[in-house]
Design brief:
Number of domains: 2
Largest sheet: 6 strands, parallel
Order of helices and strands: EHHHHEHEHEHEEH
Strand content: 5-15%
Number of strands: 6
Distance between the termini: 9 Å
Structural class: alpha/beta
Shape: globular
Radius of gyration: 17 Å
């Protein structure tokens, strides 16, 4: 029986994925690199690991930590100007509250970034439990973040359903023994999700019929 719903953040509840890509384009352009697309394996990674991978793909040498620090003001500026919540989010919140499901956020974002995004979107109050990459040793596709979230919610992993958008998150959820619903976005809609328990077009589709079918 499902007792808790756990949301990923980037690309699931807010439109930060295109903003992060835009930020990377601006950053890499400073170094003469045309960064057009985010590699699929980056979604769900810690920011530093994602930066290292993008640097490797583009053959950019240097200190990944320094480059990540340089990207911070760019990303925060874009969040301030262009952040939006994803379609159906508040309908999903209403459904969760009405049906007494527990709710949490489990994201590979770091504390400061997550705080900034949630406050800007004015949705932090909806998540009594928030687990970030700073709170675990390994992030997605490792299941640690979901085990920790379930423990903080006071439920078994088998009683949780995760709302994700990318392969790393899906793998983490399934390795934790949880159900997983995928909501693809522009960067992941062309990918395959054979392990997913359900694939939906938007958060508007989260309802009793869907959860009972898992």
């Amino acid at each position: 029986m499902i007792k808790a719903i756990i949301f990923d953040m980037d690309g699931v509840i807010v439109n930060t994925e295109p903003l992060l890509l835009k930020g990377s384009r601006i950053l890499f352009k400073r170094y003469g690199i045309d960064h057009r697309k985010t590699p699929a394996q980056v979604f769900g990674m810690k920011a530093l690991e994602a930066m290292k991978l993008k640097m490797k793909i583009h053959g950019l040498k240097g200190d990944a930590k320094k480059l990540l620090k340089e990207s911070g003001p760019i990303v925060y500026h874009l969040v301030e100007k262009e952040l939006k919540t994803m379609p159906g989010l508040f309908k999903a919140f209403d459904f969760i509250k009405k049906n007494n499901y527990k709710i949490a956020l489990a994201t590979s974002g770091w504390n400061e970034y997550v705080e900034h995004v949630l406050n800007k979107a004015r949705i932090k109050k909806y998540f009594p439990v928030i687990v970030t990459s700073d709170m675990v040793k390994k992030t997605k596709p490792n299941p640690e973040i979901y085990f920790k979230t379930a423990k903080r919610l006071g439920v078994k992993p088998s009683e949780c359903v995760v709302i994700e958008d990318a392969p790393n998150g899906l793998k983490a959820a399934k390795r934790a023994g949880m159900k997983c619903i995928i909501v693809p976005h522009g960067g992941t809609k062309s990918l395959k999700f054979p392990q997913a328990d359900a694939i939906i077009k938007s958060l508007k589709e989260i309802n009793s019929e869907l959860l009972n079918s898992l």
